[in-house]
Amino acid sequence: MESDTHHIVQIVFSLLFLGTLLGGGYMFANFNRFFGPDPHIPSETGSARTYTKVQVVLVWLHAVVITGALASLLH
Questions:
Q1: Are 10 and 68 in contact (CB under 8 A)?
Q2: pLDDT digits over 16-62, tens only?
Q3: Is 17 exposed, middle or buried (0-12, 13-18, 19+ CB in 10 A)?
Q4: CB neighbour list of residue 9: distance below 8 Å, 6 or more residues apart
Q5: What does the DSSP 8-state code read for residue 36?
Q6: pLDDT for 9 beyond 70
Q7: Euclidean distance between CA atoms 12 and 38, whole angstroms
Q8: Confidence at 1, pLDDT banded by 50, 70, 90
Q9: Apex 41 CA angle, 39 and 47, nearest 5
Q10: Which of 12, 44, 47, 70 has minimal Cβ neighbours within 10 Å of its Cβ?
């Protein structure tokens, strides 16, 4: 029999997983606003913006994998 703590942790990680997915959807919907050219940084090149985009996407993907794995392993 599973304890109440197990169910609470399962719910928390499931909500974190859904929040991560929704946050990623919001990020991709407003991708150009967040990661577009910045007029306050004239020396920023296209490569620097691309590098920043790749870093953000990789961190988000890792968060999705970790929260998804923890949410599914607790079932």
A1: no
A2: 999 999 999 999 999 989 888 888 888 888 888 899 899 999 999 99
A3: buried
A4: 74
A5: S
A6: yes
A7: 37
A8: low
A9: 105
A10: 47
pLDDT of residue 43: 87
The Cα–Cα gap between 44 and 25 comes to 26
Instruction: State the amino acid at position 45 in one-letter form.
Output: T
pLDDT attached to residue 72: 87
Give the separation between CA 75 and CA 60, rounded to whole angstroms: 23
pTM for the whole structure:
0.82
Q: Closest Cα partner for 54 from 44, 46, 42?
A: 46
DSSP states of 41-75 as a string?
A: -TT--HHHHHHHHHHHHHHHHHHHHHHHHHHHHT-
